[in-house]
Each structure stands twice: as C-alpha cells, then as structure tokens.
Write a structure and sequence with these properties.
The chain contains 32 helices and 8 strands. The protein has 657 residues and is mostly helical.
C-alpha cells in the first residue's frame, strides 16, 4: 500500500492535507500551538519522570512449563488446520517480528510498545525472543491493568453502583485476583459465597452489584459465568430456548436467602433486627439516622449514605421462594413454594448438605459442570482471536452451536487440565501459530462462520487506544493507582455501636476527602492532570467516566450492562483524535515522543516516529514524504508533529493487525 493510500484511509483527506492538518482548520503554523501551550499547561512532573522501579507484585510465570505450552499450542493449531482444510480455507501469512511485537503488546499489555521496547526486540537475535516477550508481559503490571479492563466490562465494575455502596475494595479485589493469578474457579467461588462488608471481605461486591434484585442477580450470574441467557424465563417460559419460568425459580431458590442488611433492616427501617454483632450495628445505625434527621444539617443525606454503607453487609440464611402471583403454567400454582434445583447436572456431593448459596456456587464451579470451563475458554478465545467459537459468548444454546465443536471441547479440556489458570491458558493461545498470523477481516453480521485463517481484525478498545497514546506521552504511566482494600477500610470503618454522630461526621469527612467523587478527581488532577484529563492508565481512572471523556467517546462502557463496551466509529472520535487534549499532550515538551524525536536529526526522527506510532520502520516512499514534510515546515518539531498526527489518525494505528 502506498503512503498516500495508507494515510488517506485514516483521515479521509490527501497526504499533504493530512500533514498540514487542514481537516481540523490548522496549517503547519497552527500545528505548533500545542507545543507553545506548554508554557501555560506543561505536562505534570509525575508523568514525565521515570516510572517507579516497583509498581506492583505480579505472580511470576513458570518458565519451566514452556515446552508444555508449546505442545498445547501445537495441538490447537492441528485442530485449526484440520478445520480450515475441511472448509477450504488457507491461513494468512505470518507476522513480521515488528507486527508480532505490536500485537502481543496490545493483547497482553493493552498498549503499543515503546520505541525502546520495540527496537530492543527487533535487534535481539535470540531464537526464543517471542516466547520470552510473552512471558515477560504476562507477569507485568501492564497485563494486570489490561485484563482488569477486560473484567471490568464483564463484571460491570463501578465505584458507586449505588450511592451507599463503596466499591473501591471490590475493584481492588478483582485487580488483586488477576495480579496474583488466582485460579478462576477459586475466585468465582469466593465471590458467590462471600459474607461481610465490602472493606472486610471485598468479594461480596459481586453479590452487591445487583443488590435488592435477587432475580436479575441469578440471570446476570448465569450469563457471565455459564454463558447462558435465562433472563426471559423470569417472567415466562423462554421464547427462544428451552428454559421454563419454573426452572428459573428453582435455580433462584438456591440464593433467595441472600441478605444485604441484618434481618432485612437498617437505617430508615422501623423494625429492629434480632441480637448479634451485625444486628447491633444495624440498631445503632438506625438510632444515629434518627439523630441525623432531627438536626437537619445540609449534609444529612451524605451522613445517611455513609451510615448505610457501614451497615450494608452480605449474609445468607436459606429462605423459601414462591412463584409469582401471576404464574400461568400448568406445572404449578401461583405463590406455590418451589424446591431449589440446578439447571442441569447435579450439585456436587460435598456441597449437598450445605446451604443453598453454597450449593449454587459449588455447582457452578464444579469440574463436572463443563459449561463453566467452556464459557471462560470461549471468552478468552474471543479475547485473543477476535471471534468466539460460540457467538455471542453468553448465548450458548442448542440452535447456536460452536463453529468448531471439536476445538471448543478441546479448549474446555485444556481449561480443566490447567485447573482454571487463566493466564496460562492465554499463554497457550498466544503461543499458537494461528495467533502469529496476519489478522483477517471478518464481517460480524455475516452468516458465514469465521474459520480462523488468523485472528480476526479488530479495532483497539477504548482502553487500549487510551493506554497506547499514553505510551507516547508519559514516561510514568503509574502516577496514580486505585486505592487498596486496607486504605479504604482505614477511612470507612466506624464502630457504630459506640460512635456518636460527631464520630460519624468525622468519618464521613475523612472518606469524602479521600474517596469522594470530587476529592478523587482533585487528587488525580494534582498528580497527573493535563487540560482536564488525568494522564494515567485507563484501569486507574474513575468509573464510569463522564460521557465527554475520550474513553467514553471511543466506546468504553458505562458499566451498567454486561460487556457494554463498543468499537464502532463515530464523528466525535475523529475530532478527538485530530484535536483532543490527549493528542496535544503528545506534542508537549517532556512527552516521550517529543523528547525522543527532537533528540534526533530529521532523517533519524522519521524512523523514531514510525517505530513509536506504527511499530515499524517506514518504506522508502513513506520516508521521503515524511522528510519532505519535516524539512518544509517552519521548524523540524512542527513538521514531526504533523507526521505524528497523520500517522495517529490512520486505520493502521487504530486496528490490531
């Protein structure tokens, strides 16, 4: 592809017009404005300094398992080759080292490689350098950040899903589960059975995400963990699957006894719960709530929410569930009590004497329940290869079979063999020959199944795009991190049994000054703020972000729906890439690419720009066009800025090839 064709595809204007950025009303002279603005709005010092040597402790990858990884990857390739041959599909060509490096960084680290990282990889003569890079990325903070974003979209992670819910500890728990490489079945079982308050046992966040909605909780849990949509059966027999309303209620009966306040009581309730520590806290909170109402201060709503946050905790005691009053089928009567029962298979024998919630959790994560392993295997396959073997990934049903059933069952076997080690499973997938082939365009609306001649071509997610641009800006991408469980507990915990209202006021003030929405924004802006944006990894930003934020413009989910993120193109995205604050930050003095480019002569700078932005060296034609732009501009820095902007707005930059 020629230079002009590549660049005009991305910005829909001619090469010269792109370089001069006429499409956003700016010529070469005005292109220098972001750099002159540095005197007024410089990049924050925390961003331009070298990153800390220690960001977080990440579980190490076991190098000794590499032969087993290669063997497992080879078996997957054999099955794919067989499948492609049956359907007359030829594999795409292999990736160059440069293209592989870009893809593996995006898939495992959630960002493009830096100039120095890429050059070091390309210059290496080590025959195992690809495997070495995979292992290094899998045990990096970048991996934790990127896969946190992946799970945040699935689990609908928000800091305040309700005004009284303080979810920072749960968000920290999810990140820690990835960081420590906790086995997935163990992780899920903890979330499904956890008791206590959020900062005492943060895994309760999974149950509290649907607080007060016991039936949607069951629907969402089955959809996320078992890839099966049973939500329609809440109100009537499923119209497109075989699930009945009675079966839905039988399953829901297992978790019907989940409570989020002792005895169902708490601040604002008239009844008082029975005795016990949690009940004592609830009674004390109710008393403090009444005092708060009587004094009539302006902050009484915030005090009420703070009290409710302190009294909200998860507990479980088996409870009978009855059918709805308008139940209309012949197999039972309205308001009839249903007996707890799983959807398929049986509750493991070791859990049959346990309470309903424990039975539910044990059934879901059981090794005999292959759908649990099958669902996560399919999710991660799509994460790496771009298209699931079953699509949508949460709609397994009889009339929606896998495109390659043999491969899907093999991947399920692999997940079980690995004892739900998700990172090792990903390590196998990215070690396949198929992954190292060029991405192929796939029309998601087509009825024709994708046969995986290589991964499917996909656009960067909003988080990948943000973190990739941040790589061009910030030497230190970790100027701020989410609070730990201990940090939140330190300001949230107030012993309501002995506290006065003044104690509650002080606790609320401490909480708001650390983790209130405005305080969090202020702290981030002080640490890494630039033109209203916080220059830090997407995983560390507030969630949900406001609609006008770069990440939301590029499709980051509001975290209200499961996997609500989108990668469709919009006009605001074009404008944000042309003239948004984050792209201006790249051209400020002190940014990674500014300092790197201005330290080289024009001819060398062209290589730096291409390697930094597109992860490859320019062709002869590209080099000539870029040098012409740089040397004809009013100064080399302005010319380089125009080239950087042109490359950033290409499809080649936005898509994972």
């Amino acid at each position: 592809m020629t230079t002009a064709r590549r660049w005009t595809r991305g910005v829909v204007v001619g090469l010269v017009v792109v370089f001069c950025t006429v499409a956003v009303g700016a010529g070469s002279k005005s292109a220098a404005k972001p750099r002159r603005a540095a005197a007024i709005m410089p990049l924050p010092a925390a961003v331009t300094k070298d990153p800390p040597r220690h960001v977080m402790d990440v579980a190490r990858v076991k190098r000794g398992t590499r032969p087993a990884v290669q063997a497992a990857a080879g078996r997957i390739d054999e099955l794919l080759a067989k499948h492609r041959q049956e359907h007359g599909v030829e594999p795409s060509r292999h990736l160059t080292d440069a293209a592989f490096a870009r893809r593996i960084y995006l898939e495992l680290a959630g960002r493009i490689p830096t100039h120095d990282e890429l050059v070091a990889f390309l210059d290496s003569k080590d025959g195992d350098k690809r495997a070495d890079l995979v292992d290094a990325l899998l045990e990096s903070p970048d991996y934790v950040s990127h896969f946190y974003n992946f799970w945040a979209d699935i689990l609908r992670l928000q800091e305040r899903p309700d005004k009284h819910l303080v979810f920072e500890p749960y968000l920290a728990y999810v990140k820690d589960s990835i960081r420590t490489n906790k086995p997935y079945d163990e992780w899920v079982h903890e979330m499904l059975t956890a008791d206590g308050r959020l900062w005492e046992n943060p895994a309760v966040g999974f149950q509290l995400r649907d607080e007060g909605m016991p039936l949607p909780y069951v629907d969402n849990t089955v959809r996320v963990l078992l890839g099966t949509q049973i939500g329609c059966a809440q109100c009537h027999d499923h119209p497109f699957d075989h699930w009945t309303q009675h079966e839905f209620y039988e399953l829901a009966a297992l978790t019907a006894g989940t409570k989020t306040r002792p005895g169902g009581d708490g601040p604002g309730k008239k009844r008082t719960p029975p005795s016990g520590p949690a009940a004592q806290i609830a009674r004390a909170a109710y008393k403090l709530q009444q005092e708060n109402k009587e004094r009539g201060q302006k902050n009484r709503a915030a005090v009420s929410q703070f009290l409710r946050a302190n009294v909200t905790s998860v507990a479980f005691a088996d409870k009978k569930l009855t059918l709805p009053h308008d139940y209309q089928y012949d197999d039972a009567k309205p308001l009839e009590t249903v007996s707890p029962k799983v959807l398929w298979g049986e509750v493991p024998s070791a859990a049959r004497a346990a309470n309903g919630r424990e039975q539910f959790a044990s059934w879901i994560v059981s090794r005999d329940n292959r759908q649990f392993a099958r669902t996560i295997a399919n999710r991660l396959w799509k994460k790496v290869m771009g298209v699931g073997l079953v699509e949508p990934v949460d709609d397994f049903k009889d009339d929606n079979p896998a495109t390659d059933p043999e491969l899907l069952e093999h991947l399920t076997d692999e997940m079980l063999r690995l004892d739900f080690d998700l990172r090792e499973f990903v390590r196998i997938l990215v070690s396949t020959d198929t992954f190292s082939r060029r991405a192929v365009l796939h029309d998601t609306m087509s009825a024709a199944p994708f046969r995986f001649p290589g991964p499917a071509l996909k656009r960067m997610t909003a988080e990948q795009l943000w973190d990739s641009i941040l790589t061009l800006v910030a030497r230190n991408q970790w100027a701020a991190q989410r609070p730990t469980v201990a940090e939140v507990a330190g300001v949230m915990t107030v012993d309501l049994r002995t506290a006065t209202l003044d104690d509650v006021d002080r606790g609320l003030e401490a909480f708001l000054s650390h983790y209130g929405r405005q305080a969090s924004k202020r702290h981030l802006m002080q640490a890494c703020g630039y033109r209203g944006l916080e220059l830090v990894r997407a995983s560390e930003l507030p969630t949900p972000l406001p609609l006008g934020h770069f990440l939301r413009q590029f499709g980051q989910s509001d975290r209200e729906t499961i996997e609500g993120g989108r990668t469709v193109a919009t006009i605001p995205q074009i404008l944000a890439m042309f003239n948004g604050p984050i792209t201006h930050a790249m051209l400020e003095k002190g940014s990674v690419i500014y300092d790197e480019v201005t330290s080289h002569k024009p001819k060398e700078a062209v290589d730096v720009v291409f390697l930094s932005v597109l992860s490859h060296r320019p062709t002869a034609e590209e080099r000539a066009a870029a040098i012409q732009e740089i040397t004809s501009a009013e100064d080399p820095a302005t010319g380089c800025g125009n080239v950087i902007w042109a490359l950033l707005n290409t499809r080649e930059f936005l898509f994972i090839q």
